[in-house]
Specification:
With 84 residues, the protein is of the alpha+beta class. It has three helices and three strands; from the N terminus they run βααββα. Helices cover 44% and strands 13% of the residues. The protein is globular, with a radius of gyration of 15 Å.
Length: 84
């Protein structure tokens, strides 16, 4: 999250980083979190290797943050099982 220096109590959101409190993450935040490009994200979703986005409006999609975080946790758990 970006630092708010305006003197108000309003939260300032850095759209380049996923907000850990948000329920939904837009594509840029998901790509930042997963460290992949937008086209790689599209390929992963199409192949069924990544959670699908939710349609929020006619031109708006977003990913459920908890599903994306669970996807990452599952990758880590799979790695740890192979290592053990």
């Amino acid at each position: 999250m970006a630092i708010n220096t305006s003197g108000t109590n309003r939260r300032t959101i850095d759209t380049n980083k996923p907000d850990p409190v948000a329920k939904f993450w837009r594509k840029r935040a998901v790509c930042t979190f997963g460290a992949f490009s937008p086209s790689a994200l599209d390929r992963k979703v199409k192949a069924g290797d990544f959670p699908a986005p939710v349609k929020l409006g006619p031109n708006t999609v977003a990913w459920i943050a908890a599903e994306v975080q669970q996807w990452a946790a599952d990758r880590i758990a799979a790695r740890d099982q192979v290592s053990a």
